[in-house]
Design goal:
With about 110 residues, the protein is α+β, with helices and mostly antiparallel strands. It is built from two helices and four strands; from the N terminus they run E-H-E-H-E-E. About 20% of the residues lie in helices and about 25% in strands.
């Protein structure tokens, strides 16, 4: 089973939607752009936001099995995906990629 690197690439914030719909909250997302994690055997990495993990879990599981090519060529690297968490006010985009192993990737 392949390891999958998960990297936080971008975080956006929709202040207009937050002002209109969100109740004030003290604590928001702890993920920071540039942070990365490694999923081993398609498991949730320690420190990964549980909600973000649920958004990306099916893609990580597929990549770990050597599958890919999501949506018939969506990504330039067929063993990768760009997935956003499900926070509609401040979504984080994550780049998922298979980590090549020394003995090669199983397809």
């Amino acid at each position: 089973m392949n390891q999958v690197r998960i990297t936080a690439m971008r975080q956006t914030e929709y202040a207009d939607l937050m002002a209109q719909y969100e109740n004030p909250i003290e604590h928001t997302c702890d993920v920071r752009v540039g942070q990365s994690w490694i999923s081993v055997e398609a498991r949730q990495p320690e420190g990964m936001c549980p909600s973000a993990w649920e958004s990306m879990r099916p893609f990580v599981e597929s990549l770990a099995r050597g599958e890919g090519n999501f949506y018939d060529g969506w990504m330039k690297n067929r063993l990768s995906a760009m997935i956003s968490c499900n926070d509609g006010f401040r979504p984080v985009s994550f780049y998922l990629e298979v980590i090549p192993s020394a003995d090669g990737i199983d397809f």
